[in-house]
Specification:
Elements: E1 6-10, H1 13-26, E2 30-34, E3 50-53, H2 67-80, E4 85-86, H3 89-95, H4 98-107, E5 115-118, E6 135-139, E7 149-151, H5 154-163, E8 174-178, E9 188-194, E10 197-205, E11 240-243, H6 249-262, E12 266-273, E13 279-285, H7 292-297, H8 302-316
Parallel strand pairs: 1-2, 1-3, 3-4
Antiparallel strand pairs: 5-8, 6-7, 6-8, 9-10, 9-12, 10-11, 12-13
């Protein structure tokens, strides 16, 4: 396509099929830009009116380790050259770093798990008096719950990295995070936002798993999906996704504060509720794999809503992000 209106950066073609189908149906002139094998010119003028970033932090799990740095560099270059980008470089950088997310939530005064970021397990011993066990070990650049583990001691953390140094990939940075118990029958809550408005909310029953990707490709409604992330609980039931129309207004308002502070155009915010009454926000997702079966319970196709939003942005021009 010589002159697309819209360019969609992506890395996982299966995730993008519903969006591309909805764009085709609407007749939007778009072009996919696959960041798994790509090159760009730093003096070439932006080719489209609008760019939409759908690259994922979990690309390295699919053998696409080079996709994330290419996507981030391209987004920064596009913005430097004056392109309009949805979920641009700053948003993507926030999604790539759980430590940045923790700092943002802390700065906003929002309850979030206490975290210690480290690049050497031995350094954790200097913070031993601040750690409560069990704790959650997770990579700074995560994606689909990869490499998250519940641990009981610094010695166990040291042994994990000693046994398999490849765990450090791709960025050699991890967090040791406060473990938060929650009612397994209630699960966690994920809210999806589009253009600064709540699209829908859902309860996610994890059954001990950490891969909570909403895409039916990874977690279908009828059994196991095709996903590169190995389940932490192989014998656990599949993750369940349920519409949650009764999501508290206070939770939505808190999530909207995060969306606006992060300048997030499209994305998901997750929280959980602890037995002692805390509502704890812990994850900001810029690459939002929408779940058709949940949205259908609210009476709409989520990808058609995304296309509605993209068409408005194409017509409007200017900065689409909410401040």
């Amino acid at each position: 396509m010589s002159s697309p209106e819209l360019v969609v950066l992506h890395e996982h073609p299966e995730w993008q099929k519903p969006l591309f189908c909805a764009l085709d149906k609407r007749g939007v002139a778009y072009a996919p830009f696959d960041v798994t094998s790509a090159a760009f010119d730093n003096v070439e003028r932006p080719a489209a009116k609008l760019y939409f970033n759908q690259a994922s932090p979990s690309a390295y799990l699919r053998g696409n380790t080079r996709a994330v740095p290419l996507a981030l560099a391209y987004l920064r270059t596009l913005e430097q050259l004056g392109a309009r980008v949805l979920n641009g470089a700053d948003v993507f950088a926030l999604e790539l770093s759980k430590s940045m997310q923790a700092a943002l939530l802390q700065a906003l005064g929002i309850d979030t798990p206490r975290s210690i970021t480290f690049n050497d397990p031995a350094a954790l011993r200097r913070h031993a008096d601040r750690i409560t066990w069990p704790a959650v070990l997770k990579p700074d650049q995560g994606g689909s719950g990869a490499r998250i583990q519940v641990v009981d001691s610094i010695g166990q953390v040291e042994e994990i990295f000693r046994r398999d140094p490849s765990v450090w990939l791709p960025d050699n940075l991890f967090l040791l995070q406060e473990y938060l118990p929650h009612d397994p029958e209630q699960g966690i809550v994920r809210m999806e936002f589009l253009g600064g408005e709540l699209l829908y909310a859902m309860r996610v029953k994890t059954h001990g798993r950490f891969n909570l990707c909403p895409s039916p490709v990874c977690n279908p409604d009828d059994g196991e999906g095709v996903c590169e992330v190995t389940p932490q609980q192989e014998d656990a039931p599949p993750v369940e996704f349920h519409p949650y129309p009764e999501v508290p207004r206070e939770a939505v308002d808190t999530a909207l504060r995060i969306v606006r502070a992060a300048r997030l155009d499209v994305g998901g915010i997750e929280y959980l509720e602890t037995p002692d009454g805390r509502r704890v926000f812990y994850d900001v997702n810029a690459n939002s794999n929408l779940r058709p079966s949940v949205a259908q319970a609210f009476g709409f196709d989520p990808f058609e809503r995304v296309v509605d939003f993209l068409v408005v942005q194409l017509r409007a021009g200017g900065d689409s992000r909410r401040g």
